[in-house]
Specification:
By secondary structure, the protein is mainly alpha-helical. Helices cover about 70% and strands about 5% of the residues. The protein has ten helices and three strands, in the order αβααββααααααα. A three-stranded antiparallel beta sheet has the order 1-3-2. β2 and β3 form a beta hairpin. α5 runs antiparallel to α6. The two termini are about 20 Å apart. The protein binds zinc ion (ZN). The site of zinc ion has 5 residues, from α6 and α8.
Length: about 240
């Protein structure tokens, strides 16, 4: 099940950046399930913001791929589908491998140290989160991936990887029980980190691409079209119940 819906945020007026963050969080957590029309009136009330601030936030989230827009017809939480996940995975694997390759050219001992440190912290979090699923170590997992790509030296590339990660995280929320266990995570990440320290660019890039692909393949193998439809329908029902309360 998706996490508990976010609380209503209306209170003091909020700046666009804050609203963008809150709205992003709520879309990723499927408080607004995929395909939901994002009504200006409801969102202005929900986040306590003006229409111009809201427009700015929705436009940013459209760039990130979490919101879709049709000229003059408004905004929707972007749809999800098996084909979209396949495409998203292909692009993520390509972009992140390219970014990692650049890290080998531009990153030195400091980069390696950063990766080792992030990996150590992640490993400790995985040990502590045993039985708690992937969400117990999600923050440290994210920080490890950030460290791995941190020396690429291209802000645009990093921004793009972040947008693709936001989109991936929504799939993770919808199908969290079909994600690989922390133990599986642990072995995969170790092989990437070892290849980085050994300065083995080909192995590191291959392992990172495989890691991204494997997570999606695992989910696609374990679910069929009917399961996706059931899951999405349940999310829309749950959201309708929250709204009517
Ligand atoms: Zn990972």
């Amino acid at each position: 099940m998706p996490r508990q819906p976010a609380k209503v945020h209306h209170a003091a007026p909020t700046k666009a950046a804050n609203v963008t963050g809150l709205l992003r969080e709520d879309i990723i957590a499927c408080y607004f399930p995929p395909g939901t029309k994002l009504s200006f009136e409801k969102l202005m009330h929900h986040y306590g913001v003006s229409i111009s601030t809201l427009r700015e936030s929705l436009a940013s989230l459209a760039v990130e791929g979490l919101v879709s827009t049709h000229l003059r017809r408004g905004f929707w939480a972007s749809e999800v589908s098996r084909d979209d996940l396949f495409d998203l995975t292909l692009v993520r694997a390509t972009i992140e491998s390219k970014a990692l390759r650049l890290c080998f050219e531009r990153g030195g001992d400091e980069w390696e140290g950063k990766v080792l440190h992030a990996h150590h912290v992640f490993r400790k979090a995985v040990d502590r989160a045993e039985g708690g699923g992937m969400f117990g170590s999600q923050k440290q997992h994210l920080e490890l991936h950030e460290a791995i790509l941190s020396a690429c030296g291209s802000d645009r590339l990093l921004e793009l990887t972040q947008h693709l990660l936001f989109q991936t995280n929504r799939y993770r929320h919808i199908f969290h029980e079909y994600m690989a266990s922390p133990q599986e995570h642990w072995a995969t990440h170790l092989s990437i980190v070892e290849a980085i320290v050994a300065r083995d660019v080909e192995t590191a890039c291959q392992q990172l691409a495989r890691h991204i692909e494997e997570s999606a393949e695992y989910l696609l193998d374990k679910t069929d079209e009917a399961e996706w439809e059931r899951r999405l329908a349940a999310m829309h029902e749950a959201q309708a119940a929250v709204v009517s309360n």
